[in-house]
Amino acid sequence: MIIGLIVSAVSLVVFGSATNGMMIAVAAIIGGVGEAFYFGANMALLYDALKAFGRQKDFAAIRANCVLSAQAGIIIGGVIGGYLYTVAKGLPYFANAASLLLCAVAVSGMFESRVHAAAIRLHDTARTIANGFRETFRQGHIRRLSAYYIMVGGITWTWQIYLNQIFASEIGYGEVAKGWLFAGVRLMNALVLIGLARATGFSKRRIFYYFPLIMLISTFPALIPNAYVNTFLLFTMTLSASSRFTFLDAVVNDEVSSTYRATVLSTLNLFVRIIHITGVTLAGPIIDAAGSKWVYALGGIVTLSVILPLAAVLARPKAEAAAVPALTNLDEGKT
Predict the structure, then answer these.
(1) Is 113 helix (H, G, I), strand (E, B) or coil?
(2) Is residue 332 in some structural domain?
(3) For residue 325, what is the DSSP state?
């Protein structure tokens, strides 16, 4: 995790200093490597630590609290970032890099569960990584789940990190206004996410259909030339991206053995970043020619042709356990 946080901080410094497309591409690749390190590790460490104490059912409750805390941080950062951007375009990136370095210092004081640490000592690291990679794409249900995760994560993360800001500018929001807009969007997003988890206790079947539904709501209506509709879509776009960390991560944790959990999650997030980089590269000419709304429309086509059919297969009774244990009994997991 520490290595991943440091590498991600370096990518943000490169982003903030970028003067051409090549530097942006290099920064995106560096960031993808960094995120793959810590996105997989932090989820696996949390789940394994809870499992060691028989509390894996509390995973979603803790993740929901983490999402709420993260959204609060992003709200504050979004507002401050809007003002920093007016001073110098690179300042928001440099501030983000500094925060990641502080996180690396904080993480250095963490410890792993004995079960997880023992597993690392008993297995050769390179072999574990290779086996974890194979586990991600092995035949059958896990391969389909991996493809679903990568497509959902790649598309929605491209919206979150890149496209939503451009879309907000196109419908008339300035930099400071966008800071306040996304602050409100993220606050609503956090409250809705926690409400969804507590009210429904999503089963896997519901989760699989939830993502294509919210993604379709977010895509084709972007073609409607109405500022109120478009502003609402920024909420659903953000919701679809944030939902991955609460719902899909819980599904993957439940499906994959602890031996390969960190590697599988890291591999999935690395491929999410690859889809993100590809999406940003392909979106550039389309945005220049016709605007970001058509990129969303293309995302809707991919959702209909790829993600929805995958959801239908994954949601079949054979692939369904009654409910994801990590997404139930949320009230018991409050801290």
Answers:
(1) coil
(2) no
(3) G
